[in-house]
Amino acid sequence: MDQQHGEFGFLTFGLVLLAAAVLSVPIARRIGLPAIVAYLVAGVIIGPSGLAAFGTPESIIPVSELGVVMLLFLIGLELELGRLVAMRRAIFGLGAAQLSLTAVVIGALASAAGLVDWRGAVIAGLALAMSATAIALQILEERGQLQQDYGQRAFAILLFQDMAVVPLLAALPLLAPEGGNVQGSLGDGLRTVATIAGAIALIVVAGRYLLNPFFRLLAQTGSREVMTAAALLVVLGAALIMQKAGMSMALGAFLAGVMLAESNYRHELEADIEPFRGLLLALFFMGIGMTIDMAIVWTDLRLILIAAVVITLLKAGIVWLLFRATCARRGDALRAGSVLTGAGEFAFVLIPLGATLHVLDARQASILTAVAAVTMLLGPLVAALTDALLRRVTRPVDRAVEDFSDAHGSVLVIGFGRFGQIVSQCLLAEGVDVTAIDNDSEMIQQAARFGFKVYYGDGTRLEVLRAAGAVEARLVAICIDNRDAASHIVDLVQAEFPGTKIFVRSYDRRHSLQLLSKGVEFELRETYESALRFGRETLAAIGVDQERAAEVEESVRRRDLDRLVLQQAEGISAGRDLLHSNMVQEPLSKPSRTATALNQEAKEIVREPQAGG
Known about the structure:
Elements (H helix, E strand, L loop, with lengths): L1 H29 L4 H12 L14 H17 L3 H6 L1 H25 L5 H12 L3 H11 L5 H23 L10 H28 L1 H9 L4 H21 L4 H11 L6 H26 L2 H6 L1 H23 L8 H8 L7 H10 L5 H32 L4 H4 L9 E4 L3 H12 L4 E5 L2 H9 L4 E3 L5 H6 L7 E4 L4 H14 L4 E6 L2 H10 L3 E4 L2 H14 L4 H25 L6 H4 L12 H19 L2
Parallel strand pairs: 1-2, 1-4, 2-3, 4-5, 5-6
């Protein structure tokens, strides 16, 4: 009976968490709030201060932190080591400036308010100066702005904060009122640094020399389950190594991701980890919500709210000052500040440590913890509000550009960046009526200077697509560089405008496979044709006959199509032999029917509107 009861308790545990996630997110989305806020509020409701579905939320946090671990692993996969080295100035320049300046200001205010003495001010300043890595990266990912300039520098600040935790943990015992053995503390600190250096070296060596052969061996088994288990093994193994060395698990996973960024198995790893990352991140945010002690919040509510608002504004203002001189786009400095306002996950490590060292008493530790939690709750709201306000402010001709009354193009082009501009030029050169929309007001103004009529509009919104004439359009050309947004637009067009042909600019090979599975009429990777032409001209430049170079180009194109067919049936790892097999020695046959048919359809769509004006 006890065993059955324990099993039922475990099932109830999972059921309540999944129900909280499933119910809270649609409600939050309905009222325009990020999913993170939904998870935090859901955690408060089901935690000890609400329905008390969980009496010990502290037991959930260690497991849920794996979501942050996997998030940073996936971020690391997107950053090659050379690129990380190139970011060193942002990491150690901006990162150090933000942390030190913010900690000094917050600590000085806490001391001036009489909340803590100077020792407590040091801990309060450092703990609250850090930003929530999971929240900030989630917001940037949802916006599709992590790879933008301000997103990369915001990430550099977060990375520096994670790296700064270890020396801070080593140095904070020196603040203990009893003093303790300072010499011993310094010795412990040096041993910690040596241990960390060894752990980092171990991960770097394993990532560079061992993991590729390891995954190659596993891939030969043909078992997807084994590959998934291996991906989890790598992430959790790297996280455990860094944790044992005294550093954050997230930083260990990030280093493992960076080491695998150039691996042949990068995309396979990304696909295997992604589902676990999403669920565990949701669990993490709900766990943080559960730890908020509402009794303390109600007792010192005024103080906590004022402190949380002041700290939020201070952190946003300091980042804005550090970013404003170097941000190329208007408003990016404010956006960066708004995503870094929430207190970081390590605030819930540093503040309890201060209480253990008797630098903070129980009330001070409780108030600071509550302030950190409230800033976490406010962070996504501030980010969403700032982004919404900036979108309104940066629309100089908002009413005019959303007037689609004269839009009647046979082709609707979504996205007027470099790719969309060239597509539009081809269509206009043939006399095709084109309606082009973009959600970048600065791009629209620049296009107007060159005589292009581009409407303001967000292609991911159904009402914008309707207003822009998607109902009458013969073809929708999705030319944006955001993978998730492009896929969302495909789903909208297929659901609401059946029969309309869809041509899509694909982000990468995995995106191409996703689009093919959706049944789009044509997709093209953004760098594919230019790379083929580049390769052909390179062959010609080193002495290969022009005709032979063209045959080689066509061979690569045909084999790429064959590989796509195999990957659709067998997965991303299929068809690797087609990449390195010898070129045919005889003249090639005609191009693949698939490629020919698709190209012919594109030509017909371009030419047909000419007769109709």
